[in-house]
Every structure is written in structure tokens, then in C-alpha cells.
């Protein structure tokens, strides 16, 4: 049942959601689509795992939700980034970049 | 980002949690709608990609992953976790409990018994021994004892010692002293004895208690002996006598006949400096103690170092260690020894932290030991109760395994499930505790109501304070965890759960084995409890059945304290005779005897005597022998027969030759080789001489449970020892209670100054002596019966359960030709195997622990053969019965039906 890729994803799911929402408010399904398409399907995840993560972030106050109408006039819950979430995103992104650079440096080492 | 924004975001998150908590249904509905929306979109996308409808839906679900699992995770992510989770768990627990009301009822009831007993006994111990007195910074307070070599390590000091100790001001910030004095006050129903503590003026500030009303004593009032008759009322006396009237200050109270001005009221929590659990009625300045005790100027002048009986408390300077202070007082002891060789030869000071002392170290240790044993007993009972619950829950866990396996599969965390199952037992034990606290309170009230009247102002404060509450919470939590943890771990074990999914007939082996271990454990615990209980109960019964050696038929007893009543010493004999004559004239009274105490009362004193030709105990100059001062009728009225010689007669007056009658035990102890008649007895101090004229049959002297004790009877007229204590023993055709009433009236009419210490019937007198043994027997007997019942219940449950599991096997055996009797035998044998192993372990443990009980047994050896053989047989019998009933039911199984069920 455990899959290294999903484990890896668990830790970074928050970051992916925050980043995706930074591009504009959206509902859960659209978020899943965007994450998949932006990552060029390298990261496949159970779409369901998005929802516990969204719930967690909302409780932390990093995102907020609101029921709105879609273009097809259907009721859907839309998520938005809050100021707190934006701050967290910046911090996390910075940390990721440092981490990635460090790993890159190690891999480049001769 | 500003802190304000930050705060807003946080607050919104918090508000959200609150909303989830309050609007659970709505959160659920919205979650469902959101997920449905997601799946619909995904299905539409798949349809657009050209999939057939059924496949499009299936593919959407597949991409999504387990819907229920994510729902559960989302619920958890709402983060209301602790609170919401608890509410959920409690709801769940309540549902489960309501589903099986019988189990819930039995569980709560037994837990209430167990927790109630634990709380009651602990609060008793707490009130008597553990609770800190209401002193400021009590860690810096020390008691200063005088250790007297060969006598007592915790004796009292001389009054002058206080001054010497005060001079050690490099280690002591302040040294104070007190002494206990009995006195009398007048009440509407006559004079009453009160417990007075004479305290140095600095004692209240030294321990740091503030008066509830008025003031304490000034330094001036503490100096000149007898000059300042002022008093501080104890809180209880203030409430009782003055109904808590704040206008009491400045009023006068007659103490021992002398007027004292009330200057203050002590705080409620200050019980007594002498002993925890007692209430001091009045405090007076230390300088007044002599006047109250009737000390004459000559006596005062003669006492080189002041009177003995002074108890000392000191406060250490900040940063001074106990050892440091002890070293300084050791120096002082040496100095005193060289200055007053005679007095201080065997004396030295001993410092002990006041916090560790409730009454006196040796007595504290004894009481604590007894308390710890009792607590261990009720603790074991509670453990039995818990294991019974465990065993039942294990059985039910098997029935619930499908539900649990399902929830595990649906993604519920194991931790969450364990928490849920534990909440159930914790809720049960919380309910049990609530009922138990009430039950314990009720039992304590019952005991104190049943307590016979006694002259000591014992008032143990068993109120629930922080310590008791903490104890109860800890016991309750422990009970809930102990009962629930094993079933919770077991039924949520992922390795077991799948195998259990197979069906109800799958082998529940691990459960069965575990339950067998539990039954074995229960048997072991029951065996220990029952053996200990059996020994104590037998001991108590033996004490009760014991013949005290005197006539216990209807009689009235009256105890007056003439000294306390302020009757001059010279008038005691005349008053005694007058009262006896008056009592003899009361209607229905036939015989009246006079003495200074009676058997089995705390009034019996030891006399210091020398017996020419008989060596005193090593290291001592004289014998200490219990002695009664009696008139010529005492032996006759008490019904104590003479074995040899004559009794005390009317001719044995003052001035005539001194005579003494000794008990058989005294004769055997002191003159083993021949008749004691004609032997001489001398008082150690005055050297008065008495000749043995008779031997009386043995009686119990102090306690009903003791072995034969030497006792001397001396004529009251010749022996002035404790002559201020006057007892009348009255027998006649009138009822005992009636005679007691008549005696009380007679005393009141004669003088309102006379202090009646006790007036009671012979039955009441014996009840007081037998109170503790009776109570112990009752409590431990009840625990023992409870333990057997619990063990039987547990065993019955386990055997029933294992029988029901083995029904198919029984069916096979029966159809293969086994007889029903054989089947029953097999089932019982299997059950008793566990019982025997557990019982044997318990037996060994009890034997090993038996010596612990020895100090508390009087008439029975801890290795009493009867108890040690009857108890195991009894327990085995009960266990056999508990196993037999369900086994017989299995034996009646219809083999065809049993096999079909398979």
C-alpha cells in the first residue's frame, strides 16, 4: 500500500496546493487538474487526498473557502489563499529552492 | 504581513473549528456535496474523453481513491480532534453502554464499590496522616523530641529546655513550645472535659496561623506564671458553645473553675498541635499551664528544670539544614549532661521535620502500615473488578470485531479506535467514581455514626481535598485504562482483525488464552485477599468471642474525674463513699463498687513497683505493672472469682497493714516456684509496702485480644495512685440504661462542677473495646466476600464463553459416543486447570506476604492452619461451581444441532 511517491507527495502536497491557489482561486477538482497538468503528470496522486489537505490548510487559516457558482451555474466550493497562506508559501518555496540547490550541488560533486 | 492580518487568519481558522464542532451535520453535508461535485466533474471529463458512462464513473472513483478513507481523513483534518473526537467518543461510548444495560449496570456498580472503598480509605489516611497542617512554609519547621535511652526515642522535654534551645539562634529563627492539659468547662448538662493546649506566645506566629477572630497571646502574657488568665477558643468549641458569635471576645469562660478572658478564636483548620485528627478546645498561655494543672508553688520551686511534658517546635533559619541544627542540639545535650548529671544522663535532643509527623513517629508508622495494608487490600479488590471488566470486554470485542475490522479497513486510525474503546471504559469508571464517592462518604458517615461514645475528641477530617481528589482521579483513570487497554489493543490488532473477519467460528484462540491468563490472575488475587481477610476476620471473631474474665451482664459504669472537677485531694475518699452510698440507694440498684478504673478502659494505669526477690527488667529500677485501686466490693461486683486466699475487705483501711490481690498471670510471672501468698510488693517511689493476700482469676486488662497480663488489685484506701479518677460499677434489677440515667442525674444534682468523663452501660463499654476488631472484621469480611463473588463471576463468564466457542466440538464428541458426563468433566477440568495454577500462585504469594500482617493480628498466627486450609478449599469449591453451571449447559447440547451450526 505504501508507495514512495505518495509518501513524498504527502509532505509537499501543502506546498503544491498553496502554489496552485496563488495562481487564482479555484475548486477542488480544478485544483487536481491543474496540479496534474502543471507537473506534466510526473506527480500522480489520488485526487481524494487533496481534500484532507485542503481541510487542514483551511483550519490553519492559510486558505479560506466559499461556495460559489461555476460558469455552468453549478454550486462548488472555491478556495482562496489568505495572507497567512501567502506568507507560508513564500517560506516553503524558499526552503524548497535551497534544498533543491543543495541536492543539485551534491549530485554535481566530483 | 501585519500581525493583525495574521491574527485575523488564525481567528478565522479557530472560528471554523468552532463551527465544525457546533454544526457537525452541516460540515458533513458540505463535504459530501463537494466530493460529489468533484466526482461528477471527473466523470464528465472522462465521458468527454470518449469513455462509456459506466466506465467513466468507475475510472473517476479509481482516480479519486477510497472515498470513505478520505472522508475519514478530512474529518480528522478538521482538527477539532481533541474536543470533537472526545464528544464523538463519548457519544459512541454512551451508545455502546445503552446497548448492554446489564453489563453497564454491573460495571458501574462494581467500579463504584471499588473506587468508593479506595477513596474512603485514602481520605481517612489523608485526614489522619498525610495532610499537611495549615502552617506557613512547613518545610522549615522541626519537632524537637527528647530521646530517653531505654525508654522512648520520642519523649517530651523539660520546660527549661526551651530557653536553652532558644539560645541556639544561629540555627533556629524561633523556638516555641506547647503542652496538652485536660480541664473542664461548665455546660448546660454539667461539667465537661476539654482538651486544652498551653502554648508559648510565639507559637501561633511561628507556625504562621492567623486567628479567625481576635488575637493570639502577647509575650507579656507568656512570662509570669499564673498572672494572665486569657484564652483562645478552638474553632469547633466556638461554633458549638457560642454558635459562632463574633461578640465572644472579652467574655469569660470558666476553665477548671477559674475565669479566663477570651481574646481570640483559632482558625478552623488548626486542629491541634499535639495530634492530627484531634481538636483542641481551648488554647491558653504556656505560663498558665501550671495553674490549670494545680501545680503548687512548692512543686514549681522543686522542679529544677521545670515540668516535663513540654513539646517543642522550632523554625529553622533560611538555608540551615536539619543536620546542621541537629549537630548544634547534640552539643547542647552534652552540655546539659555535664551540668545536670542525674536528669540528663540518658537524654538527648532529636530533631525531626514537622511535616513528617502527624501524631508521633512510631505511632504514625504503625498507622501508616495498617493504612497501607488496607489500601493494598481495596486496591486488589479494584484490580479484580477491572480484570472482570477486561474479561467481559474481550468477549464482546470478539463480537464487535467485524465492526472494528470494517472501520480499520475504511481508514480509521488504530490510535483513534483504541481511544474510542478506552473512552468507553473510562466513561464507565468515571460514572463508577461519581457513585463511589457518594458511597464512600455514606460508608464513612455510617462508621462515624456507629462509633461508640468515647472521651477523646477524635474528629478526623475526611473532607475531599486536593490530594484526595487527585488520588480519586488517578485511581479512576487507572481503573478505566486497566480494564480497557488490553481489549482495545487486542481487538484493533491489525494482525488479528483480518483473521477474525473470516467468520464467527474462526478460532478466537488468542482471546481465549488471554482470558485464561486473566482468570488465573483473578484467582491469584482472590486467594491473597481471601487468605488475608480470613486471617483478620478469624482474629477479630476470636477477640469477640473471648471471655474477658469478668461478668459482662447488665451493669452501669460511671467515670468521674475528681481532680479535674476541682475537688480538693483531701475530700476524694469521702466524696467517693458518699456517691457510692447515694448510688446504692437509687431504685433498682443492688450492688455498687468503687475503683480508680475498670478493665478494658484507657483509664488503667501502670504502677511503678518493686518486688523484693524479683529482679526488674534489665536496665530499669522497678517493674511497671497494671494496677487497680478498688474497694472491698469490686471483685464481687465485677464477678472476678478468687483462686486462692482472700479478697480486699472493708478492714483494709488506711493505716492497716497494706494488702494486694494479684492475678494468676502475675503469680505465674513473678513467683513461678511457689505460692505468692505472703510475698511483698512495694511502691517504687514512696516505698509503701503491701503483702499478697489472694490470687484472682485472670481478666483481660487493656484489650480483648491480648494474652494473659499481670494485674494487681490494691485497696483504694491504702493506694493513692490515680485516686482522682473515680469509677462506680453498679448492678441491680433495673435496666442498665436506666441506671446510667439515674447516675447522671445523681451527679448533676450533687454538684455542677463534677466532670463526668464517661457514663455508659457495660454493653457500651465492651462495644468501645471491640469497635476496631468488629469494624476490621466487617470491612475485610465484606471485601473477602466481594472478592470471591467477583472471581466466581469472572470464572463463570470465561467458562460460559469458552463453552459456547466449543459447542461444535462438544457436538462432535457427543456424536462420536462420548457421554454427557464425560463432556462436562472435560470442560470443568479444563477450567479448573487455570484456576489451580492461579490459586497456587496466589497461595504462595499470600504465604510470602503473611508476615506483613503479623503486627495487626492478636489472637491468630499469620500461619493459622485452619485459615490456610479452609480458604483455598472454599475458593476452589466456588470456582468449581462457577465452572460446572455452564459446562452442564454444554452437556445438554443437541449434537445434531451443534454440528449443523458448524
Question: How is this structure best described in words?
Answer:
The complex is a heterodimer of chains A (110) and B (902). By secondary structure, chain A is α+β, with helices and mostly antiparallel strands. Chain A contains 4 helices and 3 strands; from the N terminus they run H-E-H-H-E-E-H. Chain A has helices at residues 4-22, 28-38, 50-60, 83-108, and strands spanning 26-27, 63-69, 75-81. Chain A has a 3-stranded antiparallel sheet with strand order 1-3-2. In chain A, strand 2 (63-69) and strand 3 (75-81) form a beta hairpin. In chain A, helix 1 crosses helix 4 (83-108). Chain A is globular and about 60 Å long. The N and C termini of chain A lie far apart (37 Å). Chain B is an alpha+beta fold. Helix content of chain B is 53%, strand content 16%. In chain B, strands 1, 2, 3, 4, 5, 6, 7, 8, 9, 10 and 11 form an 11-stranded mixed sheet that branches. In chain B, a hairpin with a 2-residue loop joins strand 7 and strand 8 (258-265). In chain B, helix 2 (24-48) packs across helix 3 and helix 19 packs antiparallel against helix 27. Mean pLDDT of chain B is 83; it is low at 497-508. At the A-B interface, helix 2, helix 3, strand 3 and helix 4 of A face helix 1, helix 2 and helix 4 of B.
Give helix % range of chain B. Answer: 40-55%
End-to-end separation of chain A in angstroms reads: 37 Å
Strand fraction band of chain A?
5-15%
Give Rg of chain A in angstroms.
15 Å
Shape of chain A: globular
The termini of chain B sit apart by 70 Å
Characterize the overall form of chain B.
Answer: globular
Largest interface chains and counts: A-B, 32 and 35 residues
Percent of residues in helices of chain A comes to 55-70%
Please provide the ordered H/E string of secondary-structure elements of chain A. Answer: HEHHEEH
Strand order of the largest sheet of chain A: 1-3-2
* Oligomeric grouping of the chains: heterodimer
Amino acid at each position: 500500500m505504501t508507495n514512495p511517491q505518495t509518501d513524498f507527495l504527502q509532505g509537499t502536497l501543502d506546498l503544491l496546493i498553496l502554489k496552485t491557489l496563488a495562481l487564482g482561486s479555484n475548486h477542488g477538482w480544478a485544483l487536481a487538474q491543474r496540479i496534474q497538468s502543471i507537473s506534466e503528470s510526473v506527480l500522480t496522486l489520488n485526487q481524494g487526498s487533496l481534500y484532507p489537505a485542503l481541510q487542514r490548510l483551511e483550519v490553519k487559516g492559510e486558505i479560506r473557502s466559499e461556495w460559489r457558482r461555476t460558469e455552468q451555474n453549478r454550486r462548488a466550493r472555491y478556495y482562496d489563499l489568505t495572507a497567512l497562506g501567502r506568507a507560508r508559501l513564500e517560506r516553503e518555496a524558499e526552503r524548497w529552492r535551497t534544498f533543491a540547490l543543495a541536492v543539485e550541488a551534491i549530485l554535481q560533486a566530483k | 504581513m501585519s500581525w493583525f492580518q495574521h491574527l485575523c487568519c488564525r481567528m478565522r481558522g479557530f472560528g471554523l473549528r468552532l463551527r465544525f464542532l457546533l454544526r457537525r451535520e452541516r460540515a458533513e453535508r458540505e463535504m459530501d456535496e463537494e466530493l460529489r461535485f468533484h466526482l461528477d466533474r471527473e466523470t464528465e471529463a472522462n465521458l468527454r474523453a470518449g469513455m462509456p458512462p459506466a466506465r467513466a464513473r468507475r475510472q473517476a472513483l479509481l482516480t479519486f481513491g477510497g472515498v470513505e478513507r478520505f472522508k475519514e481523513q478530512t474529518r480528522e483534518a478538521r482538527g477539532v480532534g481533541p474536543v470533537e473526537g472526545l464528544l464523538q467518543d463519548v457519544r459512541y461510548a454512551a451508545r455502546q453502554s445503552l446497548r448492554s444495560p446489564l453489563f453497564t449496570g454491573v460495571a458501574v456498580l462494581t467500579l463504584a464499590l471499588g473506587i468508593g472503598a479506595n477513596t474512603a480509605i485514602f481520605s481517612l489516611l489523608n485526614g489522619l496522616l498525610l495532610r499537611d497542617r495549615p502552617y506557613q512554609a512547613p518545610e522549615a519547621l522541626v519537632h524537637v523530641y527528647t530521646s530517653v535511652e531505654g525508654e522512648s526515642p520520642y519523649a517530651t522535654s523539660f520546660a527549661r529546655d526551651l530557653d536553652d534551645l532558644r539560645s541556639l539562634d544561629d540555627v533556629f529563627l524561633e523556638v516555641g513550645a506547647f503542652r496538652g492539659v485536660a480541664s473542664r468547662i461548665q455546660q448546660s448538662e454539667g461539667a465537661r472535659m476539654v482538651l486544652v493546649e498551653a502554648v508559648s506566645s510565639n507559637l501561633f506566629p511561628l507556625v504562621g496561623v492567623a486567628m479567625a477572630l481576635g488575637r493570639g497571646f502577647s509575650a507579656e502574657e507568656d512570662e509570669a506564671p499564673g498572672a494572665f488568665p486569657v484564652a483562645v477558643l478552638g474553632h469547633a468549641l466556638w461554633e458549638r458553645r457560642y454558635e459562632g458569635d463574633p461578640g465572644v471576645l472579652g467574655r469569660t469562660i470558666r476553665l477548671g473553675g477559674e475565669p479566663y478572658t477570651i481574646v481570640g478564636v483559632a482558625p478552623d483548620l488548626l486542629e491541634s498541635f499535639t495530634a492530627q485528627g484531634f481538636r483542641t478546645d481551648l488554647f491558653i498561655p504556656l505560663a498558665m499551664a501550671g495553674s490549670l494543672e494545680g501545680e503548687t508553688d512548692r512543686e514549681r520551686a522543686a522542679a529544677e528544670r521545670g515540668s516535663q511534658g513540654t513539646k517543642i517546635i522550632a523554625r529553622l533559619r533560611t538555608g540551615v539544614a536539619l543536620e546542621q541544627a541537629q549537630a548544634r542540639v547534640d552539643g547542647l545535650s552534652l552540655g546539659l549532661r555535664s551540668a545536670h548529671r542525674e536528669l540528663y544522663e540518658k537524654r538527648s535532643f532529636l530533631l525531626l521535620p514537622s511535616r513528617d509527623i502527624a501524631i508521633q513517629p512510631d505511632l504514625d508508622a504503625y498507622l501508616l502500615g495498617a493504612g497501607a495494608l488496607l489500601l493494598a487490600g481495596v486496591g486488589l479488590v479494584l484490580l479484580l473488578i477491572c480484570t472482570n471488566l477486561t474479561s467481559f470486554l474481550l468477549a464482546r470485542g470478539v463480537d464487535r470485531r467485524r465492526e472494528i475490522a470494517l472501520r480499520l479497513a475504511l481508514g480509521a486510525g488504530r490510535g483513534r479506535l483504541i481511544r474510542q474503546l478506552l473512552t468507553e471504559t473510562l466513561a464507565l469508571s468515571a460514572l463508577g467514581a461519581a457513585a463511589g464517592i457518594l458511597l464512600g462518604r455514606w460508608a464513612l458517615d455510617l462508621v462515624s455514626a456507629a462509633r461508640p461514645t468515647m472521651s477523646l475528641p477524635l474528629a478526623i477530617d475526611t473532607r475531599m481535598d486536593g490530594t484526595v481528589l487527585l488520588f480519586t482521579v488517578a485511581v479512576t483513570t487507572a481503573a478505566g485504562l486497566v480494564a480497557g487497554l488490553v481489549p482495545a489493543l487486542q481487538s484493533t490488532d491489525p494482525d488479528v482483525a483480518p483473521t477474525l473477519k473470516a467468520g464467527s467460528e474462526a478460532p478466537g484462540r488468542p482471546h481465549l488464552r488471554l482470558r485464561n491468563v486473566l482468570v488465573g490472575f483473578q484467582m491469584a488475587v482472590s486467594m491473597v485477599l481471601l487468605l488475608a481477610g480470613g486471617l483478620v476476620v478469624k482474629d477479630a471473631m476470636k477477640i469477640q468471642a473471648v471471655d474477658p474474665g469478668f461478668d459482662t451482664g447488665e451493669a452501669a459504669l460511671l467515670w468521674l474525674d475528681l481532680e479535674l472537677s476541682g475537688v480538693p485531694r483531701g475530700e476524694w475518699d469521702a466524696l467517693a463513699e458518699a456517691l457510692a452510698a447515694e448510688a446504692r440507694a437509687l431504685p433498682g440498684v443492688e450492688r455498687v463498687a468503687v475503683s480508680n478504673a475498670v478493665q478494658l478502659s484507657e483509664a488503667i494505669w501502670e504502677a511503678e513497683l518493686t518486688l523484693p526477690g524479683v529482679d526488674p527488667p534489665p536496665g530499669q529500677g522497678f517493674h511497671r505493672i497494671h494496677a487497680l485501686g478498688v474497694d472491698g466490693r469490686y471483685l464481687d461486683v465485677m464477678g472476678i472469682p478468687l483462686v486462692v486466699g482472700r479478697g480486699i475487705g472493708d478492714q483494709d483501711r488506711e493505716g492497716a497493714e497494706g494488702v494486694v490481690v494479684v492475678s494468676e498471670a502475675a503469680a505465674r510471672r513473678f513467683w513461678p516456684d511457689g505460692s505468692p501468698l505472703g510475698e511483698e510488693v512495694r511502691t517504687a517511689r514512696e516505698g509503701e509496702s503491701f503483702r499478697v493476700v489472694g490470687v484472682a482469676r485472670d481478666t483481660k486488662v487493656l484489650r480483648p485480644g491480648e494474652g494473659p497480663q499481670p494485674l494487681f488489685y490494691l485497696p483504694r484506701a491504702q493506694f493513692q495512685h490515680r485516686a482522682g479518677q473515680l469509677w462506680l460499677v453498679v448492678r441491680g434489677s433495673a435496666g442498665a440504661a436506666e441506671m446510667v440515667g439515674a447516675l447522671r442525674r445523681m451527679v448533676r444534682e450533687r454538684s455542677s462542677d463534677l466532670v463526668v468523663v464517661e457514663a455508659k452501660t457495660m454493653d457500651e463499654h465492651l462495644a468501645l473495646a471491640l469497635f476496631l476488631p468488629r469494624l476490621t472484621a466487617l470491612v475485610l469480611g465484606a471485601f473477602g466476600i466481594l472478592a470471591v463473588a467477583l472471581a466466581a463471576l469472572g470464572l463463570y463468564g470465561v467458562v460460559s464463553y469458552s463453552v459456547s466457542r466449543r459447542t461444535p466440538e462438544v457436538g462432535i464428541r457427543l456424536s462420536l459416543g462420548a457421554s454427557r458426563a464425560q463432556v462436562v468433566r472435560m470442560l470443568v477440568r479444563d477450567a479448573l486447570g487455570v484456576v489451580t495454577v492461579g490459586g497456587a500462585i496466589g497461595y504462595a504469594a499470600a504465604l510470602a506476604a503473611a508476615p506483613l500482617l503479623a503486627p495487626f493480628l492478636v489472637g491468630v498466627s499469620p500461619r493459622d492452619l485452619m485459615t490456610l486450609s479452609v480458604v483455598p478449599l472454599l475458593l476452589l469449591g466456588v470456582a468449581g461451581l462457577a465452572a460446572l453451571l455452564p459446562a452442564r449447559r454444554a452437556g445438554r447440547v443437541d449434537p445434531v444441532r451443534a454440528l449443523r451450526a458448524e
